[in-house]
Amino acid sequence: MLAPSSAATFQPINPGYNSVFQPNRLSIGLVVPIESYPHDPVPSMERHLERARLAEKLGFSALWLRDVPFNVPSFGDAGQLFDPFVYLGMLAGTTEHIALGVASIILPLRHPAHVAKAAASADALSGGRVILGIASGDRPDEFPALNLGYEDRGSRFRDSYDYIRKISAPHPTFANRFGRIGHGLDLLPKPTGGRLPLLITGGSQQSPEWIAENGDGWMMYPRNAATQAQLIRNWRGRIADAGRPDQPVMQALHIDLAADSSAVPRPIHLGYHLGIDHLRDYLHDRREIGVNHVAINLRFNQADIEDTLQRLSDEILPEFN
User: How far is CA 201 from the centre of its chain?
Assistant: First the structure.
């Protein structure tokens, strides 16, 4: 049932990626906004920078933003409200060493030159702390708002990925549906590690082989342990078949941390109401099946947020981060 990495280290890219992802280790991050808003799709964003700094002080390894351009009623979550790249710039100047991730940028909704420029800028400003999750998009209402088709988002995702990879290289020369680059034209700044860490989210309308051949990691949704282990084992097998070095796996997890440390898990949306003892067991199990990072979302958490962060720091992080 196990799906651990056989690598001694993942291929280094930048300081953020290198610190968050290490083989056979599981690190813990937080999804922004770090607040509880269970009954409203729009968070207050109160004390958001203070909590980001607290997360860094307490030892969490990463902060994760989302790309939610429109408040879509059927989706029910407006994310952190602020544009992820603008917010990355703010966090780069507000924090010092915590990794700054986006889970995930919806590539078909943006021109890849803008994505590459903004992400590389935030990466440079933060000292190489940016990790970029990428996705094809799962909210159909957003596409007509930008006069874009929903059905061809998979092919646009691939072409956007290709553009970002090539434009980050020195002296790029290429052409695809998004533009033609040549004659000394260049996009600056370049990413600190020579390329952006690009982690693919879910299926992103791509084949499993394409994902294994192209990503710098895989972002998964939480599933039962047996299913998750099988998916990770299959994916790492495809990476090996492609002749590539091993890549990390991460997943998100909503938690509502109970006051009773022994409270048994009760399912909530994409996670659990549970005691900290069972959370520790869950994270141990995820590490055993090959997950390298879990991004905790406190949207449904009923306890005081600062108290919850302190409990996680005291009782969970020492065994993982």
Answer: 8
For 102-138, how does the pLDDT look when each residue is reduced to its tens digit (9 = 90+)? 999 999 999 999 999 999 999 999 999 999 999 999 9
Peptide bond between residue 189 and the one before it cis (omega within 30 degrees of 0): yes
Q: What is the spatial distance between Cα 202 and Cα 191, in angstroms, rounded to a whole number?
A: 24
Q: Which domain holds residue 19?
A: 15-319
pLDDT(1) > 50: no
Coil, strand, or helix at residue 103?
strand
> How remote is the C-alpha of 163 from its chain's centroid?
20
Q: Give one DSSP letter per residue of 233-244, joined into a string.
A: HHHHHHHHHTTP
CATH code at position 253: 3.20.20.30
Q: Provide the b/e sequence for 100-118 (b: ≥16 CB within 10 Å).
A: bbbbbbbbbbbebbebbbb
For the chain, the straight-line distance linking the first and the last C-alpha, in angstroms and rounded, comes to: 24
Decide if pLDDT at 247 tops 70: yes
Examine residue 245 and state whether it is found in any structural domain, yes or no.
yes
Res 35 pLDDT > 80: yes
Side-chain half-sphere exposure of 274, counting CA atoms within 13 A: 21
Q: Global pTM?
A: 0.96
How far CA 42 is from CA of 39, 90, 298, in Å, comes to 9, 20, 14
User: Distance between alpha carbon 118 and the CA centroid of its chain, in Å?
Assistant: 16
Unique residue bearing structure tokens 């956007």: 160
Q: How many independent structural domains does the chain possess?
A: 1
Q: Compute the residue count for the chain.
A: 321
Query: Which residue shows structure tokens 């952190």?
Result: 80
pLDDT at 8 over 80: no
Residue 2 in domain? no
Q: Do the domain assignments include residue 280?
A: yes
3 domain-assigned: no
Query: C-alpha 9: how far from its chain's center?
Result: 20
Q: Could you tell me if residue 289 is left (phi over 0), alpha (psi between -120 and 50 degrees) or otherwise beta?
A: alpha
Rounded distance, CA 289 to CA 78, Å? 32
